[in-house]
Request: fold
Amino acid sequence: MAYSNNKNNENFEVIDNKNHNEAKTLKTESNKTKESNHLTQIAWQRLDDGSYSPSSYINRDLSLLEFNKRVLAQAASPLHPLLERLFFLIIFSSNMDEFFEIRVAGIMQKLRLGDVANSPHGMRPSEILNEISAVAHNAIDEQYRILNEDLLPELAKADIRYLKRDELNSDQSAWMQRYFTEQVSPVLTPISIDPSHPFPRLVNKSLNFIASLEGKDAFGRDINLAIVPAPRSLPRVIRLPDELTDGKEHHVMLSAVIHEHIGELFPGMNVTGCHQFRLTRNADLDLADDVDDLAKALEGELENRRFGDKVRLEVTTDCPTEISDYLLNEFELHDNQLYRVNGPVNLTRLLFDFNIPALRYQPFTHVIPKAFRRDMDKPEKSTSMFAAMRKGDVLVHHPFHSFATVTNLLWQAASDPKVLAIKQTLYRSGTNSEVVKALAAAARNGKEVTAIIELRARFDEASNIAVANYLQEAGAVVVYGIVGYKTHAKLMLIVRREEDRIRRYVHLGTGNYHAGNAKAYTDYGLFTADPDISEDVHKIFQQLTGMGKPANLKKLLHAPFTLHDALMSFIDDEIAHAKAGKRAHIIVKVNALTERRLIDKLYDASQAGVKIELILRSICCLRPQVQGLSENITVRSILGRFLEHTRIYYFYNDGDERLYCGSADWMDRNLFHRVEVAFPIEDKRLFKQIYQDGLQNYLQDNVKAWVLEGTGRWYQTQPSEGETAHIAQDYLLKTINRVGESG
Reply:
């Protein structure tokens, strides 16, 4: 099936497409069978204006879908502990939800405006949707195969079971009956479908049941169908009492409880069928650039997110065709927007807090850098971190280093009588954040606290509004950033009076000020008292809270003003060195690469002889290893225990090496539509540490690395015969946290 724009109807229809691409398999191929001796043959060409033809680029959305498939592959990998594999399966579900809510919904909107190719890759919206449908259906089928054939049997061996209704013994069935009567039934609201009760407006991603009925209700009406929404207040996974399971981890799904007893909701009628389903809607927010009150406008949009345009319908495999067709018609969706799943329709709610260490990753201690540990032993503890920063820059590498370095600095600043002001950006922090509590305490203690809170951080909008209100009540000045430009930079500035002079202390990071993220994401943070960097950060905060021309910065690169031009210039320098016969080398580690001008410049550099190594977590629109186009470019992605999030830009620069860390990916939105900061690493010791641990270490990974071909396909590496296995994240755990050492 395929999408086609219908000029006579604002909706799109489904047409047959005999030449539709076959769904790609998710089975990975090793480098032994996949590596070839020649570069990928791609029909590309250089255009008259110096740009490259559409075939030179990979579609962004298909590349993101490939990343989700790599996440799914972790759920099938025995290299991860069993419960971690289950967690990867759930992450895949969450990623796919967002993919449909944001990316697919956006493409569908473009299709309604006309099926025209207007992006670098040259694909029309209908072509992209066709390909997404094929790949996504196959990936979701594989997801449930992994669940049913791999994970559930292995969990059962560990006495972790999700029991089906027919697997319960009599005592367990009696308990489930009581649970339904006491806990579930009182909050259920069955809704009949009849002329006086039209089909209800269902919330995005909510669990619902459609029941087919026979007989007459209390008013003598013939009711054939009813909808039963499952309240979100009810847990989706319910642990059976220890006395019924001998203390084992046995559970039932809420869907099984409702299904088993749904007849009790329709007394006097016969329930002939009951089927769970879930509807996914467009969840992107649409805010005008000229709103008068961003917070109020955002609160209104958050309500609309729950009821956006429909983009996907999920039902179980046993749902009759007449029921699924009825739902498709009701939601104005088409066959290839229907996903039949062999299990619960919402696996994101499958996770339960199992306390079984043997089935999880080995815990480790998040260490404090030596510079801060030494000074914390001194009597003047309240000023120890400031003393350490005056001695020199301090680098932290999360999650291997503790996020307490950040919160400790804030708490010290909050209580230090010499501290006059604290300024900080908050993109995602969480409502129960030590960072936020410390800022509030500082404001109550009379410090001048300014928080730049980005209310539009996707899916954290409500949390950020709550944080803003909390800080304002504590006396902090809260600024929502610049309308039209998300404030994504990670900046903290502390102003302190010392011996009749003002000194500034700064923290800059690649990741959010979020303790949970800092335990799961890899990120760098730099603590510095460098006067030039401190002055640059001061100017950026002035720009964010006031008005005026772009700040003239000495060391920091600043989007949307100087960062993109600087990166282009740095690549040009490498091109010039290569053409002069000198060594030229670029290494970039970011989450995504989509910006066309940077891609084109990297193509130019490759053709000039520059060696380019890209470490990209998710999206890559560049085609590497294409003859004549990108022979000197390699692209790899690392998927392991932690989510790779560090952003590092390295340029050899004829021996005068440049190395920056920053908040920006190489995407249009980061470089032109967000406030971002990249900061130089000037301390030689820290430079070497990041170059080795953050770049070379990842280039040496031959177990958890995936390599991109010019065709857009990824394959997983494995050690060659006789080669020592190297896992980048394990290396860092061993060298920084001493994980795996005896004694």
Observations:
- Residues 1-37, 287-292, 296-303 have pLDDT under 50 and may be disordered.
- The chain has four domains: 35-157, 159-288+309-349, 370-552, 558-737.
- The CA atoms of residues 279 and 379 lie 60 Å apart.
- The chain has 20 helices and 29 strands.
